[in-house]
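Exercise 7b. Backbone tokens:
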């Protein structure tokens, strides 16, 4: 008579399997919270102030940690607390101790014209139409210690450091640097200083 052989399979109780899933989900949620709170944050562009480089509805990843390692650099695209209720996205133009002046399409830093490749095409297109890309000038001022001077890429349609409502932006108000456009999918790209 043949004897039927059976293999013992390890048995996990439903309770123990559920507990493992709960632990995994709690760890995942904690990681998402820590990453979201301390390292990266999503940001939605709202308004035309950064055109032609950023448009309303685009979603960005903002690196909140980078400025713990170093101070903002000229050309960085940053998000900062403009008011207690609203964050703005702008470009760093002048750093602490520098003098800044805006005349027409030229930005002067310590008396020298700033090269701005990120708006070059827009400036040239305006000139071809016989107009100036920027119609909002700014009298020369020195950026205070601990502050930066920011401007929107859409120079004639941007509330930025040229306006008294925004003014110079203190380091403490900076949320972080915009590093990635992740939505819409056809515009996914790293944000690099050109």
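Sequence design result:
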């Amino acid at each position: 008579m043949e004897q039927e052989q059976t293999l013992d399979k390890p048995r996990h109780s439903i309770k123990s399997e559920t507990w493992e899933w709960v632990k995994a989900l709690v760890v995942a949620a904690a990681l998402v919270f820590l990453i979201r709170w301390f390292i990266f944050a999503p940001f939605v562009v709202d308004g035309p102030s950064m055109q032609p480089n950023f448009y309303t509805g685009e979603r960005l990843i903002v690196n909140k940690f980078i400025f713990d390692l170093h101070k903002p650099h000229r050309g960085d695209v940053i998000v900062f607390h403009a008011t207690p209720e609203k964050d703005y996205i702008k470009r760093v133009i002048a750093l602490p101790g520098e003098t800044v002046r805006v005349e027409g399409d030229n930005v002067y830093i310590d008396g020298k014209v700033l090269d701005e490749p990120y708006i070059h095409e827009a400036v040239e297109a305006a000139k071809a139409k016989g107009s100036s890309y920027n119609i909002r000038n700014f009298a020369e001022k020195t950026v205070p210690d601990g502050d930066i001077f920011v401007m929107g890429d859409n120079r004639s349609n941007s509330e930025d450091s040229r306006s008294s409502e925004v003014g110079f932006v203190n380091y403490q108000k900076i949320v972080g640097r915009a590093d990635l456009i992740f939505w819409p999918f056809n515009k996914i790209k790293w944000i690099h200083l050109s």
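Instructor comment: The helical segments are 14-39, 66-69, 120-128. Residues 42-190 form a domain with the Umud Fragment, subunit A fold (CATH 2.10.109.10).
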